[in-house]
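To: structure desk
From: M.T.
Subject: fold request, one chain
Message: Could you run this one when you get a chance? Sequence is below, nothing fancy, just the single chain.
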Amino acid sequence: MPGKIIRDLLCSVRSEIENIDAIKVKRVIIGLGYTAVQLDTEHVGLCYTFSSEIAPDCCQIWRRAGTLAGSPAIKLAELSLSWDLSEAVVGVAALNALSQLIIEKKSDRYVIVEGDLIDQIKIAEDDTVVLVGNIYPFIPKIIDKTRKIFILERNPRIRGANIFPDVASEDILPGATVVIITGTALANGTIDRLLELSRTAREVALVGPTASILPDPLFRHGVTAIGCVRIVDNERILQIVSEGGGTPSFKGACKQIVIRPR
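Reply: Done. Structure tokens follow.
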């Protein structure tokens, strides 16, 4: 099962939200690009769906389809511990939705600024930058500052030239000074090892809508910044997800923010 970071996140959410067992799931949408969970508090959480990695069971992905709405949100969030990727995706989306209650109420314990993460990370010419995930928009901005860039990608369909398989992280990450990890590592069970391998880096950032999660446990495990989203139009984001949209379509429904510890 996924390790200490997801368990730490679940424990933190349970301890910080009063009457958490009373919070129910209002709606679950498993879109082709992203999965969304909306709570009866109206808060929404997102997680990348991994549609290319989730194999349907006959004609369906979820055996429990039709039963998720109305269930306790924390029970759905506990699915983030599952090694079944289709369950983990829904679990992380629910965990993100619950996280929004805490971030919203206790935002003063963080430094939160609007903007794109890559524009707020200092990268020098002698830095070695590792992107865990082929995050296209970041690459030219990094190359403008340093030529020492390594990209790790699990999906062979978007690997391309000079992009290494994710298993190369064991050799590449320990030499990095700046590490930027896609938030999808929270759902696919790799986040613990990636952060262990990155512990000597000056800057370790988690990025993407999936990274929109309670920051404190990640900060305790070495993350220095989280580039995520703040949803400003729930109905719009749910429509986009239900129609197969992803991050290019999210503009207007959410704002990019960067969260750092105080």
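Reply (cont.): The chain has two domains: 4-108, 110-261. Let me know if you need anything else for the meeting.
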